[in-house]
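Sample log: Rhombotarget lipoprotein.
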Amino acid sequence: MRFLKTLLIIAVAAGLSGCVGWRSPDGAKQTGSLVDYLYPNAKEAPTLAPSVVKLRPPVKVGIAFVPGANWNNGLPEAAKMKLLERVRDSFAKHQYIGKIEIIPSQYLQAKGGFTNLEQVARMFDVEVVTLLSYDQVQFNDTNALAVLYWTIIGAYVIHGDQYDVQTMVDAAVFDVQSHKLLFRAPGTSRVKGGATWAGLSEKQRLAAGEGYERAVDQLIPQLQTELDGFRERIKNNANYQVENKAGYKGGGAMGWISLALAVLLAGVAYAVRRRA
């Protein structure tokens, strides 16, 4: 009799272990690092020789995502192109930007460094390149009551799994010839939600895309603010030289200088007329 009770307990325990499961905390990470792309073998901060950055409005700009850490790591190419188009369209209105070329990811080699960046810049005929790096972490925490009951018609979940997607997209603008970072701006987002076990993968996939969209929503106005600040900073900075391309009479430092000279000449002319 005791033997039968022991056998029954073992059978019940084995049955429970087979029909009940717990999903352990899980997560995934997608990353495309600017440092890994431009300085793949650097063991210390790079040093740049003092030089004058020459900008020639209207400036030809390239924009691209840096390569991911691993093959097939990160956003699909189609999604990257849509995000890059949003950034491009936001800055196409400025007269001092001549054109903005979207550079597909396959032209940038992992750990390619500035050598690869210069090759791509020549290929697409751009002088300044905006590199978008990204870092997205997906956390998946199982609710304490999320117990799977395996039955003859499938798996059921009591209470759902919770996901938390945190995304950072950073835009860094480089002058290709001097390798100098002109300015940068970040965008971040956090998307949280819950789903049943059966629909968790789809919800997480949609949340990942939404995370990038929200991060770019935040990045675009910050990039605009940094661009405006950069234009102000270089007005009296000897490390920057701005010379308009032939035929261009718009903004840029030379445009502002010309405007200042015009105001000065108008004042002199007014003073001369009053004396006469």
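Observation: The helical segments are 2-19, 34-38, 77-91, 113-124, 200-233, 252-275.
Observation: The chain has a mean pLDDT of 78.
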